[in-house]
């Protein structure tokens, strides 16, 4: 598919090819003089010129705008093809596919219930600042994802069905929101990473967690298994690190795109664009998983980020090591204490 | 309005809009009035603009035929005007010169209809502040100052700097005005452009102009460009040149730089600046050595070639390589190419002319063409590309310090002829001049002070100049002083004069580069699109230009300003004796008709306004290949009736596209070399031998026609009775009935006689071209062998040669320096740097230098550098490191101004008139050196040093 | 249906920038200082082999700008021209990254996406506004195509290096030139291969 598109785009360069044939055609006419000067020798070698032009070699121009001295930049179009061919379907897949997969999983498997039911005693799990941080980032993230999806795919799923004026208003609003919510995300992301990193280091027992798929499976050999886990289980840790890493990518590449005054080379901008969207694919996928887990798949999970307290039984079942630890060192705090 | 700059070299206070649409145009006009002056100061012109209604798309459109005012190619344009606003420009595909094509300047022509940065009304500098004047007040004050100076110091203390931007009629009138004022201190930029060509070439074969045409180059098989870069200076000429190339012609480019034109060449030859003569002689060495010269052409039509053969022997290949730097194989190859591919043409421009031996350079090029027998044929000739749009016309009309209109010179007979044409008493004309005698010179019949050295006329000790007093007041009428070398002296002279009067659409450097607080007047002149008249292209064709718009702001057309001055001086009755005046504006057509009655020497007599307008209305009927109309109203005529267009308009001469073409009847534009220097020299016949133009009844050489000669030939009675009255005792140049010319042509003879071209110009300091090293030469080892002249008096001014060359500047200033054109700008650049569409493309002054020289100095491309002149000046510019330049050489464009030795002059401009782009002037650091015949400045071979800023 | 193309004959282009100012002139109402829709690039500047090429939007058949635009503001006309709607343009700059020719230009460079509305060569065909309307003139400049004329840059080209028009016609002209250049001795205008003159 990529090849086919590439061919097509090469055809779009047809005009330029013709344009440069001016150099190519008259090679024979003037080659007679064996003592032909350097001038002749070089003028009549069009291949070098064509190669230089295709390689994006800069020339001279009176227009002093960004890269105006480069006649052809093929990389930009290659990037555009990657974006169209891979990134766009990937985003669609990460939204629809991951959501669908989890829906299916939920329907087949059902939620992970608390084996002992709710104890009614609530332990402190997050403090106020954590909750604020989480929700600021969550809202920013969701806004960015929604507007980002509009920016990438809106022209396919929305534009054809509404008027041009409405579409114009929607898309320019999306761009405005996306640009300005970005910094909110970046700040909250940075604080979260710094604040939560100590809780998110991988331990050996996290390996076992993966082996039993976190104990969420309600059938077969996995049924009823509850692997060890600390404050965060291995899945959460994985989510955290994905957010940390791809959040960094998405932030840096995003900043590259909203500061035209940096005068970055087009190649860098195109790379940023691809990295931005590619990172978004992963973040969107994880986000959907995260939301599924928190809302319906794990009974009692949502409460943690609403009040900051979790049910004691939930803690015992899902974060046994953490529960044991805080109980042992006396940092365990009940809600009403 | 949104305008952001991409460079911070010159900060602008105001950032006005660039492209204006119809509505914005009107808004900005009214804004400008509010911003610049109080309402009470509004002139009528500006009020009109402010009241004008918006121009809707479908407003009726007038399509006006006009001619680009940027260079001498003479491209035609259709200007679209709606409700008096210049709203569109369309290609004139039917125009025979450009077929609709334009360079950057022509394509941006419509901006002349905006003129945001123009001078808006008359102003004077009072206590360092610009104050608005009314026209009446301005003329009164300026006129009175001139009269006061006249009574104290004589008429020669007023200098009339003219313009190559005048129409023919205005140029003629300006020359006449200077004559009526009583001075020969009148000149224009041809002095610093092709004056050496005019002198050198006219003294070789009769006329000092382009012999063929741009279109004719299509038929050439070999083109030698020496010191010419049409890709940047005459881009539309490339249409014809490249067509010729595509038909198989060889292109040879000889230049110190690998120019854009060199990139299109088959052979690029690098010569060291200032070695044109050794190069040409080097070619002739191979030509004579191999017997490639055209023997029969030389024996029939050339006088003195033996002297050249002798001289050429001094330039064997080894010597040429030593002096010029071109190898023997390349010289041989080029000579062979020239000899074997004919017809061939030679093209030269400023690269050849702007040397202190410029006149000899131009003669050397002619000699090459004579040796090859390339003259007087299609595809051959010397295609000398002129610069400004009407520099050919202004030259022809004697806007020069050494001649009256038509190259009549300044002899008493010449004055009498023109007094006759003007219908004035010679004695009255004479009485206008200073009657004294200065250093043995009589002011009326002696050459004045050249445009290149007006500042010496101000600064030089008055006992050493051949006139009563220094120049005390100068009109800078359409001329930028940043095109004159020795910037420091120019500034000093501006400071010293009593009064500066700038008459120009823009304030120009004369108005702003001084340190004065008083005594400067700025009078806004209209552009050529705000008036009408004829304009002579480089190929001698006259084109009629229609008025596109009414004068913007309060500006007035040049001829109206001249009339107002004449009136103030009390000489309007004489000056405009046979010219109808409408209001204060002399009728252009009457001026055309008046010069038609006097310009017999070069055949500016057949081009009546009616014929020119007919050609203008029938552009499409002329063939691009031949420039002739195969049918239609102008059937058989050459477009623009290129001079000489013999006789009266009624004689219907078709114009002469190719000079000295013996293959045609004179009545169809044929001819032969002119008999201008008598019939014999040192006892040798110098008339043509066995060569004559087709159909000539005299089958040999003959002298120029006079009344007596007609009688001897028995042709006297061919004259009508009325013609006989005028012709009696006259010759072909002074018979204002045109009868002598008519009769000569009827007998197949050309009025100016049939002689040989002479390669020995015995009335010049060097009778044959001799190589002399530039005054500022990097090759000290050659000074002894090729020395310059001794210091001497040239015209009215003492002129230095040897005393400069004696000093060794090359040690501290090792880089040869030349200057030249950029395609986006023109001349001093005031006009193009004020046109945002052009200014945007070239925003910074720079110096081109070779990678090697840059590396030696630790300079990188784009660095700021100082350019040091051996005469002390120092400018700060940007380095452009490019392989275009050979090691040891450097190049600067000369269009920039507005920064003087790192000092911005922007503060000196009246508000809102500073061009968008300012920069250091190349001529601030360019040096002394003047042609020994014409006082051409030497800007193409100087020295400099470059250091990192 | 015609497919409009530009073609630049490097053997004729002399970097006179006539096309650039022709564009500025004709589209002045929509342009400002610092924005050029067309530029001339010279490769091997100052060296043997120097060649200049005038370049602007090439109106690609499968235009990268059109494909990459998040706002879908580009459209292709029946003549194969790639035009855009400035009202929909969000100034993201992606078209500039994707375009091989560097055609899209932006008037501003302020942080957080304020590049302003993208501007590029319209082939002198205006934009989506009503033909010859004030809005079209201010946003897109001239609409010569609707007047039955070709783009100003090509029409004013000093040496006829830049050709514009129907792809078939333009390449025919170019092919004829090639034939003549390889057979310089043939009579100008007479094409031996087809036995006709132009």
Automatic annotation (TrEMBL), chain A:
It is a multi-pass membrane protein. It comes from the Bacteria. This is Formate dehydrogenase subunit gamma. Residues 125-300 form the Cytochrome b561 bacterial/Ni-hydrogenase domain. Residues 1-31 form the signal peptide. Keywords: Cell membrane, Electron transport, Heme, Iron, Membrane, Metal-binding, Signal, Transmembrane, Transmembrane helix, Transport. InterPro entries: Cyt_b561_bac/Ni-Hgenase, Di-haem_cyt_TM, FDH_cytochrome_b556_subunit, Formate_DH_gsu. It is found in: Cell membrane. The lineage of its organism: Bacteria, Pseudomonadati, Pseudomonadota, Gammaproteobacteria, Alteromonadales.
Automatic annotation (TrEMBL), chain B:
Keywords: 4Fe-4S, Iron, Iron-sulfur, Metal-binding, Molybdenum, Oxidoreductase, Signal. InterPro entries: Asp_de-COase-like_dom_sf (IPR009010), MoPterin_dinucl-bd_dom (IPR006657), Mopterin_OxRdtase (IPR006656), Mopterin_OxRdtase_4Fe-4S_dom (IPR006963), MopterinOxRdtase_cofactor_BS (IPR027467), TAT_signal (IPR006311). Its cofactor is [4Fe-4S] cluster; Mo-bis(molybdopterin guanine dinucleotide). It comes from the Bacteria. It is found in: Cell envelope. Residues 61-117 form the 4Fe-4S Mo/W bis-MGD-type domain. Belongs to the prokaryotic molybdopterin-containing oxidoreductase family. This is Formate dehydrogenase subunit alpha. It comes from Shewanella intestini.
Automatic annotation (TrEMBL), chain C:
Residues 4-34, 49-79, 80-109 form the 4Fe-4S ferredoxin-type domain. InterPro entries: 4Fe4S_Fe-S-bd, 4Fe4S_Fe_S_CS, 7Fe_ferredoxin, ET_IronSulfur_Cluster-Binding. Its cofactor is [4Fe-4S] cluster. Gene3D superfamilies: 3.30.70.20. Keywords: 4Fe-4S, Electron transport, Iron, Iron-sulfur, Metal-binding, Transport. PANTHER family: PROTEIN NRFC, PROTEIN NRFC HOMOLOG. This is 4Fe-4S dicluster domain-containing protein. The lineage of its organism: Bacteria, Pseudomonadati, Pseudomonadota, Gammaproteobacteria, Alteromonadales.
């Amino acid at each position: 598919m990529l090849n086919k598109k590439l061919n097509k785009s090469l055809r779009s360069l047809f005009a330029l090819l013709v344009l440069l044939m001016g150099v190519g055609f008259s090679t024979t006419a003037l080659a007679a003089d064996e003592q032909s000067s350097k001038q002749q020798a070089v003028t009549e070698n069009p291949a070098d010129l064509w190669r230089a032009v295709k390689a994006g070699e800069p020339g001279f121009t009176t227009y002093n705008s960004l890269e105006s001295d480069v006649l052809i930049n093929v990389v930009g179009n290659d990037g555009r093809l990657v974006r169209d061919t891979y990134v766009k379907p990937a985003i669609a897949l990460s939204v629809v596919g991951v959501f669908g997969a989890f829906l299916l999983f939920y329907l087949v498997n059902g939620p992970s219930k608390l084996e002992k039911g709710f104890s009614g005693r609530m332990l402190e799990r997050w403090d106020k600042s954590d909750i604020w941080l989480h929700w600021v980032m969550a809202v920013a993230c969701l806004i960015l994802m929604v507007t980002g999806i509009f920016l990438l795919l809106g022209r396919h799923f929305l534009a054809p069905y509404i008027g041009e004026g409405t579409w114009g208003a929607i898309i320019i609003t999306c761009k405005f929101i996306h640009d300005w919510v970005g910094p909110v995300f970046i700040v909250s992301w940075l604080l979260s990473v710094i604040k939560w990193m100590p809780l998110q280091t991988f331990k050996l027992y996290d390996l076992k967690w993966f082996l039993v798929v976190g104990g969420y499976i309600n059938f077969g050999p996995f049924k009823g298994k509850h692997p060890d886990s600390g404050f965060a289980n291995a899945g959460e840790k994985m989510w955290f690190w994905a957010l940390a890493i791809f959040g960094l990518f998405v932030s840096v590449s995003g900043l590259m795109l909203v500061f035209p005054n940096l005068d970055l080379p087009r190649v860098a901008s195109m790379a940023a664009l691809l990295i931005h969207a590619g990172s978004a694919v992963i973040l969107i996928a994880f986000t959907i998983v995260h939301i599924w887990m928190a809302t319906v798949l794990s009974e009692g999970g949502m409460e943690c980020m609403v009040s900051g307290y979790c049910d004691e039984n939930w803690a015992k079942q899902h974060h046994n090591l953490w529960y044991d630890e805080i109980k042992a060192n006396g940092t365990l705090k009940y809600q009403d204490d | 309005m949104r305008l952001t700059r991409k460079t911070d070299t010159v900060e602008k206070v105001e950032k006005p809009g660039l492209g204006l649409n119809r509505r914005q145009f009107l808004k900005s006009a009214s804004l400008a009035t509010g911003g610049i002056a109080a309402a009470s100061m509004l002139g009528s012109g500006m009020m009109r603009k402010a009241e004008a209604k918006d121009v809707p798309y479908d407003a009726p459109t007038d399509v006006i035929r006009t001619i680009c005012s940027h260079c001498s190619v003479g491209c035609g344009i259709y200007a679209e005007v709606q409700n008096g606003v210049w709203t569109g420009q369309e290609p004139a595909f039917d125009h025979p010169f450009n077929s609709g094509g334009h360079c950057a300047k022509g394509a941006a022509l419509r901006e002349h209809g905006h003129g945001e940065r123009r001078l808006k009304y008359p102003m004077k500098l009072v206590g360092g502040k610009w104050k608005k004047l009314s026209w009446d007040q301005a003329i009164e004050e300026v006129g009175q100052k001139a009269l006061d100076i006249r009574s104290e110091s004589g008429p020669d203390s007023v200098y009339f700097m003219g313009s190559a931007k005048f129409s023919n009629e205005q140029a003629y009138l300006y020359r006449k005005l200077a004559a009526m004022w009583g001075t020969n201190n009148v000149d224009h930029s041809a002095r610093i452009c092709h004056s050496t060509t005019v002198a050198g070439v006219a003294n070789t074969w009769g006329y000092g102009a382009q012999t063929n045409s741009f279109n004719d180059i299509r038929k050439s098989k070999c083109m030698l460009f020496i010191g010419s870069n049409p890709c940047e200076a005459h881009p539309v000429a490339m249409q014809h040149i490249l067509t010729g190339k595509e038909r198989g012609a060889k292109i040879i480019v000889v230049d110190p730089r690998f120019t854009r034109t060199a990139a299109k060449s088959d052979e690029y030859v690098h010569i060291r600046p200032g070695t044109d003569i050794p190069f040409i002689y080097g070619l002739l060495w191979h030509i004579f050595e191999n017997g490639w010269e055209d023997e029969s052409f030389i024996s029939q039509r050339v006088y003195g070639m033996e002297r050249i053969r002798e001289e050429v022997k001094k330039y064997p290949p080894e010597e040429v390589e030593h002096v010029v730097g071109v190898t023997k194989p390349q010289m041989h190859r080029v000579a062979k190419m020239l000899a074997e591919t004919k017809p061939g043409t030679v093209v030269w421009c400023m690269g050849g002319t702007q040397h202190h031996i410029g006149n000899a350079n131009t003669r050397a090029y002619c000699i090459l063409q004579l040796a090859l027998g390339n003259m007087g044929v299609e595809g051959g000739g010397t295609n000398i590309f002129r610069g400004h749009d009407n520099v050919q016309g202004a030259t022809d009309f004697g806007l020069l310090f050494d001649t009256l209109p038509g190259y009549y010179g300044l002899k008493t007979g010449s004055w009498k002829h023109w007094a006759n044409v003007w219908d004035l008493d010679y004695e009255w004309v004479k009485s206008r001049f200073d009657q004294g005698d200065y250093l043995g010179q009589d002011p009326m019949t002696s050459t004045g002070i050249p445009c290149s050295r007006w500042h010496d006329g101000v600064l030089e000790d008055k006992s050493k100049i051949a006139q009563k007093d220094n120049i005390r007041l100068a009109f800078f009428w359409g001329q930028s002083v940043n095109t004159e070398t020795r910037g420091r002296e120019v500034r000093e002279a501006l400071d010293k004069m009593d009064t500066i009067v700038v008459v120009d659409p823009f304030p120009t450097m004369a108005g702003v580069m001084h340190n004065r607080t008083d005594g400067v007047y700025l009078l806004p002149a209209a552009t050529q699109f705000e008036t009408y008249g004829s304009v002579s292209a480089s190929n001698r064709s006259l084109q009629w230009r229609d008025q596109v718009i009414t004068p913007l702001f309060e500006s007035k057309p040049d001829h109206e300003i001249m009339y107002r001055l004449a009136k103030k001086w009390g000489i309007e009755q004489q000056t405009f004796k046979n010219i109808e005046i409408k209001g204060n504006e002399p009728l252009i057509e009457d001026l055309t008709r008046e010069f038609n009655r006097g310009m017999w020497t070069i055949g500016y007599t057949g081009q009546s306004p009616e014929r020119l307008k007919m050609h203008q209305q029938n552009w499409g009927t002329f063939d691009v290949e031949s420039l002739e109309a195969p049918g239609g109203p102008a059937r058989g005529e050459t477009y623009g009736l290129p001079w000489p267009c013999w006789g009266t308009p009624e004689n219907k001469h078709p114009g002469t596209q190719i000079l000295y073409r013996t293959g045609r009847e004179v009545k169809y534009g044929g001819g032969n070399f002119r008999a201008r220097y008598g019939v014999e020299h040192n006892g040798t016949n110098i008339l043509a031998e066995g060569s004559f133009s087709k159909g000539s009844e005299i089958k040999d050489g003959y002298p120029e026609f006079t009344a007596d000669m007609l009688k001897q030939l028995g042709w006297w009675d061919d004259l009508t009775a009325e013609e006989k009255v005028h012709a009696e005792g006259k010759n072909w140049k002074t018979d204002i009935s045109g009868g002598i010319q008519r009769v000569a042509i009827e007998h197949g003879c050309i009025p100016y006689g049939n002689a040989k071209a002479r390669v020995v110009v015995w009335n010049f300091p060097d009778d044959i071209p001799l190589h002399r090293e530039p005054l500022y030469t990097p090759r000290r080892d050659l000074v002894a062998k090729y020395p310059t002249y001794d210091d001497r008096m040239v015209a009215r001014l003492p002129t230095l040669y040897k005393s400069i060359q004696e000093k060794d500047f090359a040690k501290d200033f090792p880089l040869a320096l030349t200057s030249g054109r950029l395609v986006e700008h023109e001349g001093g650049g005031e006009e193009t740097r004020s046109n945002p569409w052009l200014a945007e493309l070239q925003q910074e002054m720079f110096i081109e230098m070779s990678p090697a020289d840059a590396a030696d100095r630790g300079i990188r491309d784009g660095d700021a550098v100082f350019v040091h002149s051996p005469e002390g000046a120092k400018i700060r510019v940007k380095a452009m490191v490019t392989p275009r330049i050979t090691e040891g050489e450097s190049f600067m464009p000369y269009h920039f101004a507005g920064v003087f030795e790192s000092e911005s002059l922007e503060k000196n401009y009246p508000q809102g008139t500073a061009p968008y782009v300012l920069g250091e002037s190349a001529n601030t650091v360019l040096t002394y050196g003047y042609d020994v015949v014409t006082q051409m400045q030497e800007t193409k071979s100087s020295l400099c040093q470059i250091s990192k800023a | 249906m015609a497919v409009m193309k530009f073609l630049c004959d490097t053997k004729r282009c002399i970097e006179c920038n006539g096309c650039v100012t022709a564009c500025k002139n004709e589209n002045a109402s929509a342009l400002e200082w610092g924005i050029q829709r067309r530029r001339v690039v010279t490769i091997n500047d100052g060296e043997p082999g120097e060649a200049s090429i005038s370049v602007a939007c090439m109106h690609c058949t499968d235009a990268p700008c059109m494909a990459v635009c998040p706002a879908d503001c580009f459209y292709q006309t029946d003549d194969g021209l790639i035009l855009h709607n400035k009202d929909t343009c969000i100034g993201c700059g992606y078209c500039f990254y994707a375009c091989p020719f560097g055609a899209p230009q932006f008037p501003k460079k302020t942080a957080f996406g304020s590049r302003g509305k993208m501007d590029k060569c319209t082939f002198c065909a205006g934009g989506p506004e009503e033909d010859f309307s004030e809005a079209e003139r201010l946003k897109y400049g001239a609409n010569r195509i609707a007047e039955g004329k070709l783009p100003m840059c090509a029409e004013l080209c000093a040496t006829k290096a830049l050709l514009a028009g129907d792809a078939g016609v333009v390449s025919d002209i170019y092919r004829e030139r090639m034939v003549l250049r390889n057979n310089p001795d043939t009579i100008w205008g007479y094409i031996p291969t087809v036995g006709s003159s132009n």
